[in-house]
């Protein structure tokens, strides 16, 4: 099964220029033997935890009220036993049929039982009616042994009772025999060294209405439109960036890193980046967000974000991240 059409940029040549600075190879551990799963089957990563274990999936908590910043940057009351902290950019105020970005891949130090991730949020609705489609890479100290892995997530009720990671519940339908969600990535960027990235695109198929996920141009699968109410038509906001959970160990801020573990101000080869940001319009064309991006950070002294100047290689892009616990973050 394939989508009826694919989004295209007005200028497809941009992302290939100056390509020597980047490596876009997507290599997972199971690719070492040079084989994929047979056609008609899909790879499934083995997990050491029960997929219904809420401790392994902190977005599913439903405990005491905790005031945090939601995906749109608003302070709201959710139901979580730990706080979420972000350094990201948002695009809102329009009708979006999808989004794309190239995510620099790192392996941030993560304190147990927390996670650190880089992802894209496709958003509609708010409060209990919040719908999100999320995809990126993460280090989950509970489920993946502190390795960096690809993941998806979705919710149709503001993270209250619907949705899950990857294939842990009915929802996301995988079609690819080449990419295993939850499986480790081998290509990790090095501080002041070689940089690796992966391109992630989510778009609404105008024929079926389903939301399709592409990673490195591979159709990984789709979220059926019937899963959603607010996202059954279009998204109203797109976010790109980093997120961590903070359990405040020993009464202090967590030492969990975001991105490379270095602040956005350090820039190229030192701070994590997301580049070639774009949104999909009603004609299935990828458009540049230009000057419409808004930076959001929960605690700039812990994790920061910096918008870069638009150019032909990086397009719309930004740096983000930080070390967590430090002299300025406690």
TrEMBL record:
Neprosin PEP catalytic domain mapped to chain residues: 77-330
Pfam families per record: Neprosin
InterPro entries linked: Glutamic_endopeptidase, Neprosin
Name of this chain's protein: Neprosin PEP catalytic domain-containing protein
Originating organism: Linum tenue
